[in-house]
Design a protein that fits this description.
Layout (H helix, E strand, L loop, with lengths): L3 E10 L1 H8 L7 H16 L9 E11 L4 E7 L5 H15 L2 E4 L2 H15 L34 E3 H5 L10 H7 L13 H6 L3 H25 L5 H18 L2 H9 L4
Parallel strand pairs: 1-4, 4-5
Antiparallel strand pairs: 1-2, 2-3
Helix pairs in contact: 1-2, 3-4, 6-8, 8-9
Keywords: Exonuclease, Hydrolase, Nuclease
GO molecular function: exonuclease activity; nucleic acid binding
Protein name: 3'-5' exonuclease
């Protein structure tokens, strides 16, 4: 079984970068610097969603399924800084060469990791292999790599299900709930910055972890739809997830399992 790695990132405004680019005075608080950037963005784009290169990564959560187990983990502040978080993610790609699965990873998560990784001197040769690398199987990467939109070594599930048409995109939360999965619990991406300012870093990590498990469960339905799993295989894989989350015993997984109505 090829390892499958589902991932999601959470970000906050890069207040240091915003200060530098706009030559803002040092006595402005982080909140004021971020508000300055939000107001600029609203004036220019009609929303306060900052550009990818000004998104500072504070958590990457992952769900890993291989032949032996299913596990969920996070690379997160304060245990690691941004550069270490991103490097450890790409180190995992280097070590396992997994299929990676995301929800809008091609539109947001990976471009953010590209820009922020370069800022920190991150190395990711396996990830960037387009068939010209020094690995024994590099030739295969010409036809199926992590970068090309229509390859499946990175599967942006949202993008593929929408037939690569943004007008057809569906929210992960809606789709998960329609399938009987919990969906988002207690937080969404718009609340991350305020949670960060209040020191609720663990809640951000927990939210990100539940997002990757929702993504994995929707991915299992996709695998069933395209004939890679039958009904018995789907039920078996879902049971593996339930058992793994139950063993962790953390409050956010107890809440997640309580909301999981699909059987």
């Amino acid at each position: 079984m090829m390892p499958t790695l589902i991932f999601d990132i959470e970000t906050i405004p890069d207040v240091d970068g915003i200060r530098r680019l706009n030559e803002l005075p040092d006595d402005l608080s982080d909140f004021e610097v971020a508000e300055f950037a939000f107001q600029q963005r609203r004036a220019s784009h009609g929303n306060d969603f900052l550009p990818h290169h000004l998104q500072r990564v504070v958590t990457i959560s992952c769900a890993m399924r291989d032949a032996s187990q299913f596990r969920v983990f996070s690379l997160s502040e304060p245990e690691s800084n941004e550069g270490q978080i991103i490097q450890r993610f790409f180190d995992g790609v280097e070590r396992f060469t997994p299929q990676i699965v995301s929800w809008n990873g091609g539109g947001f998560d990976l471009p953010v990791l590209h820009y922020r990784g370069m800022l920190h001197g991150v190395s990711a040769p396996r990830y960037w292999d387009l068939g010209d690398g020094d690995y024994a199987d590099s030739r295969d990467f010409k036809w199926n790599n992590y970068i090309s939109r229509y390859h499946t070594r990175h599967l942006d599930l949202m993008d593929m299900l929408a037939m690569y048409s943004p007008r057809a995109n569906a929210p992960l939360d809606d789709l998960a709930k329609l399938m009987g999965y919990p969906g988002k619990l207690g937080m969404d991406g718009s609340a991350v910055w305020s949670a960060w300012q209040e020191g609720r870093i663990a809640e951000i990590r927990d939210y990100c972890e539940t997002d990757v498990v929702n993504t994995y469960l929707v991915y299992l339905r996709f695998q069933c739809m395209r004939g890679h799993l039958d009904a018995a295989g789907l039920a078996s894989e879902q049971a593996v997830v339930r058992e793994a989350l139950g063993r962790i015993g953390a409050p956010h997984w107890e809440a997640f399992l309580a909301e999981w109505t699909e059987t």
